[in-house]
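Example record used in the benchmark description.
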Amino acid sequence: MEEEHYFPDAPHNYPLCLNRQCPKASTCLRQLVEQAIPSSIEYWVVVSPKHQATLKGACPHYRSSKKVHYAKGCMNILENLPHKQRQRAMTLLVERFSQRTYYRIRKGERLLSPAEQKDIQSILKKCGVTQKLEFDAYVEGYEW
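Model output (structure tokens):
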């Protein structure tokens, strides 16, 4: 397999790490992407090695290479709510995410991270929803 196929979904200008001696290098996306970058890529964005040298303890730039479950779409959730709960939930979701982002989330155009899924469950709880509702679909991906 060619190098550039290891992380094809890495965000453009994703900050990379050059510290191969880091104890977490083998599980850090920033380090793994750096190792997989093809030689044809001329310029990168990197986390400053000088800054890293000043860090004590856990690295704030660490990103786990473990894939997580993203939710895709919440039409199923909203359609199964009574009208008053749905209206209240939509208002709170727009407040949390903005109107444009809310509609993108609802249709599944924008994925929801595990933390955002918890936020939505919390909002639903505020609206009186007692059961845990399932999102329209789930996909695995890296938490960049």
